[in-house]
UniProtKB/TrEMBL annotation:
GO molecular-function terms, A-Z: 3'-5' exonuclease activity; DNA binding; DNA-directed DNA polymerase activity
GO cellular-component term (any): cytosol
Alphabetized NCBIfam families for the sequence: dnaq
Reaction(s) catalysed by this chain's protein: DNA(n) + a 2'-deoxyribonucleoside 5'-triphosphate = DNA(n+1) + diphosphate
Name of protein: DNA-directed DNA polymerase
Listed EC numbers: 2.7.7.7
Pfam family, one: RNase_T
Bilayer-crossing regions: none
Amino acid sequence: MSKFNWFSGRGPALTQQQLERRQALAEPAALDERPLREQRFVVLDLETTGLNMRRDQVLSIGAVVIENGAIELSQQFERTLHRPDHHASASTLIHGIAPGEVARGVDPAEALLDFMEFVGDSPLLAFHAEFDRRMLAGALKQSLGYRLQHRFFDVAEIAPLLCPQSRIRQGGLDEWIAEFGLQVQQRHHASADALVTAELSLMLFSKARRQGVDSLIELERRLSSRRRRQQAMSL
């Protein structure tokens, strides 16, 4: 099927089928009072060509689902995106995605449509979520002309909120893995990092319920209050 530029001749070239899929993507659900156990979350991790959010690109997407208070292993997502101009760099030593694997990857528009259909209307969880949110938003805009509006919750922000006794304040995922004694077989791989982030999230949600935080609305309220306190302390 031939491609055409559907966005005033300036946007990405999409097939009619891709355009129809883009138009059918679910709107994000509003935050509500449902208990966390009844909420569906998509836990996301990205591997990228680097850490520059303006210049670098998404190489792979890994995600798992938390639903009914458990990780649904039947709902997992993994795609490596085709990047024809990608070359090995310092980041390759971290994520281990060889240029050949990227060259055999899925067309970015197809991979991103697959992912957003997988997400549906669910909120997303990620560790250092702002990076993932901005990288995903940039990829969606570039490849699909799609504006990301789904809510992201940052596990790196939730953890110190619910674990005030911990000495970790701005630690990475490895520090929180050690704090909770999680066993990890692999790191710096999108699917593996998404899975361990989901395991950490479930342990944090258990703490949240014991602290009277049992909905996304209440969690957002507590996070916003913490942000305001931190901002006031920095003045």
